[in-house]
Amino acid sequence: MKLRRFALLFVSCFVLCSQLTDVRADVRLPHIFGDHMVLQRGQEIPVWGWADAGEQVTVQLKEDSVETTADDQGKWMVKLPAQVVGDPVTLTVKGKNTVTFQDVLLGEVWLCSGQSNMEWPVSRSNDFEKEQAAANFPQIRHIKVPRVPKGFPQDDVDAQWTVCSPETVGGYTAAGYFFGRKLHQELNVPIGLVNSSWGGTRIEPWTPPVGFEKVPALAAIFKQVQLTNPATGAYKSVLERYLQQLDAWSTKAKVALNAETPLQPAPAYPASIQPLTSHTSPTTLYNGMIHPLVPFAMRGAIWYQGESNHVEGMMYYEKMKALINGWRDVWKQGEFPFLYVQIAPYHYGSESPSILPLLWEAQNKALEIPHTGQVVIHDIGDLKDIHPTNKQDVGKRLALIALAKTYGQKDLVHSGPTFKSLKKEGNKLRVTFDNVGSGLVARDGKPLSWFEIIGKETDFVPADAVIEGDSVVLSSPKVKEAAAMRFGWHKLAEPNLSNKEGLPAAPFRAGKVPERDWLSLKVDESKAYKLIYDLDLKNLGKDITYTRDLSGSFTQPFKRIAYFLELQKPGEETQYVFTSMDAFTDDLKKIAVPTLGSKAYFQTKVSNLNVVSNVAGIATGTGLKGGNIEFWPGNYGPTNSANIPNASTSLWDFGDEPAEPSDGYGSMQVHNFEAKQTIFAINQWKSGPNADLGIGNSSGRTRDWTFMSNASQYDVKRLRVLVLPE
C-alpha cells in the first residue's frame, strides 16, 4: 500500500512538474499585444515578451521575420522594420509554442492619459445616442488599461483591444475617441487609442522616477521615491540603521525575558522606505499603468489632467516637465508629440478666484517644452460641472494640433490667439497676438470681455477692449497711465476673444504691476500721522520682527492711534482698511501686536472711530461711535463677558472673553459693534503662516477670523501702526 501511494505521488508530481515546465516554456507577450490591436506605422515596432532562458523566438509580420534568443531571465525583444498601412495582418510569435494575433492593423497609435476628464466615456458625453449610432469605425481600436497602482514597475496589464462599433464605443475615452475619429477621417488610416487614465488622480503618480530626477524643483519627490527603492543607497542606509536598532532591541529583549522585566515595543519599521502603493503617491500609476506599455510603438500622447493639482501654480509646469520628459526618456522614441488640454473654468467652492489662472499660466508655459500643444476650452466648459460633457470639441481641437504639427497639414489654424507682445501707448496698452488665423473676433458678437488693466493709482479694473488688426487696444477712464494687463484672470472667466476659426484665446497676463502705497493714495487723513511700526506679516511668529520700529525714538505726545492693514491674494486686488481712534494708551510699546512681552492688554471701547476701506460691507466714515478693541496675547472664548452691545454669547465675534493661558492664542482685533462687524483681525500670530488674518466679518465658523489659519493665502500682508501728534 505504501509503495502504491508513493508511485501515485511520484506520477502526480511528474505530471504537475511537466505542466509547470510546459507553462514556463510557453512564449508569451504582454497584453498590450492582442487581437484587433493597432501597430504604429512608419517606425520600428518593438515586440517583446517572455520564454525559457535561451529559447529561440521568431516574430513575423507580413513578409518580415526577426529572430532572437531569450536572455538568462527569459526576456526577449525584437524590433520589426517600419511598416506601411495595408490590409489587416497577422502577427506571429514562435518559440516552443506559437502565439498568433489576428486582425492587426497598421496605423497611428496614441496614448490617452490623465484624470477623470480623459477617462470620461463617450456614453456620458453630449448626444450619446447620436454618437453611438454613428460609431461604425472598425479601423478605430481601443484598449482600456485597468486602474492598478503599484510600488514597483510592472510588466503587464490585464486588458484587451476592442473594435469601435455602436456596441463598444460607449466605454471609450471620449476625448480620445473624438480625437482619434477626426484623425481617422482626415488621414484615412487606422487609429489605436491606448486609454490609461484614472479619475481624481494627480500628475505625480503618472511620472517615472527619471522624470523627477531631472527637475531640480522636484528633488524632494525624487528623494522620496529613491527611499522606497531597495536598490538605492538611500534605502539601504535607512534599512541598515533600522536593523541596528532592531538588533539593539533584540539584545534588550533577551535580557528582559530572562529577568522577567517590562520591555518597550520593538522599533517600528521606517515609514519612509515602505513601498508607495496608493494611487495618490508618486510613480505608482506609472509603475502599474504606464510601464507595462513601454516601449509599445506610438505616435504620441494626449493628456487631460490638472484639476487635482490646480492649486499649485507654476509648480505644475515643473511637474509637466517631469512627466513629459520622463515618458520620453523611458520610451526612447525621441521627443514624441505631447498634446494636452488646459482645464476649464470652474467655481472650486470658496477658493480664491486667482488660484486657477495661476495654473493656466503654468499650462501656457509648458508650451515651451518642445513638440507640445495645448487646447483651450474655456468656451466649452461648464462652470457648474468639473466634467464638461462637450468632449467632441475637445477631441477635435486636439486633432487639429496633431494634424498641423505632427502630420504636417498646411494652412491649418490649430490654435486660438496667443500673446505675442505688449506696448504702452499713452494711457492705453496694445496687446498683439499670434495665431490670429483669419482675424480676431468676439465669438458672441459682444464687446470683448475679461480684459483688465492696472495703473499707478489703481488696482486692476475692467478695460475697454477694441480689436485693431492682430491687436487689442486696452484703456479705462479710471487708469491715467496703464502699466500691466491681464486676460481671463478669474476661475469663472469665459472670455469671448477668439479667431474667426472659432478657437479661443488663452488666459494670460503681461506687463509689470507698479508698486503703490495705498495708504498715501487712498487715506488723506494719514498724511498728518507719523509711522511708528511697519510689519510684514510674513514675519509673524513667537517673536515679532518689525520692518521698522520707531517706538524708541518718537517722543512727542499723541492724541490718536491708527492702523492700516493691506492683504492681497495672488493675482487679486489688494484689500485694505484704515482705522483711527482716540488714543487708548500713551505707551507706544502697547499699540502694536499685543505680545506677552509688550504687556499690552485691552478690552475696551474706543472713541471717534474713523474707517476707510475698499472691502465690500465695511462700514466706513468718521466719528463712528461703535469702536472697541480686543488686544491680548492669551486665549479667549465666545462669551460676551464685557457686555459689548450686539455681540454674541456663543460665537467668536466683537465681544469675547479672555481666558488662560495668558500667552496663548492671541487676539489683535478692532471692531465696530454698532455695525456688528470686525474691522480687522490678526490672531494666532505665534503660528506664523497659520495665523488668522481678515478685514471685515469672516464668513467662516467665526466672525472675527478666529481659527481661520489663513495667513498663507496672502502674497502681500502688511500692517502699519501710526499716531497723530498733538
Features:
disordered N terminus; Rossmann fold; 726 residues; seven-stranded antiparallel β-sheet; eleven-stranded mixed β-sheet; alpha+beta; globular; 20% helix; sialate O-acetylesterase activity; 4 domains
Provide an overview of this structure.
It is a single chain. This protein is of the alpha+beta class and 726 residues long. It has 4 domains: 24-207 and 289-409, Rossmann fold; 209-282, no CATH class; 418-511; 518-725, no CATH class. The strands form 8 sheets. Strands 1, 3, 4, 6, 7, 8, 9, 10, 11, 12 and 13 form an 11-stranded mixed β-sheet that branches. A 7-stranded antiparallel β-sheet has the order 25-24-37-26-27-29-30. It has a 5-stranded antiparallel β-sheet with strand order 28-31-34-35-36, with no helix packed on it. Strand 12, helix 10 and strand 13 (372-375) form a beta-alpha-beta unit.
Short description:
Helix content is 20%, strand content 28%. The chain has twelve helices and 37 strands. The radius of gyration is 33 Å and the shape is globular.
How would you characterize the largest beta sheet? 11 strands, mixed
User: Span from first to last CA?
Assistant: 118 Å
Structural class: alpha+beta
- Helix content class: 10-25%
By CATH, the superfamily of the largest domain comes out as SGNH hydrolase
Uncertain segments are 1-23
Q: Could you give the count of β-strands?
A: 37
Number of alpha- plus pi-helical segments: 12
What percentage of amino acids are in beta strands? 25-35%
> If you compute it from the alpha carbons, what radius of gyration comes out, rounded to the nearest whole angstrom?
33 Å
Q: How would the global form be characterised?
A: globular
CATH class of the largest domain: Alpha Beta
Any guess at the CATH architecture of the largest domain? 3-Layer(aba) Sandwich
Mean pLDDT: 95
InterPro entries: Ig-like_fold, SASA, SGNH_hydro_sf, SIAE
GO biological process, one term: carbohydrate metabolic process
GO molecular function: sialate O-acetylesterase activity
Domain Sialate O-acetylesterase: 108-209, 282-399
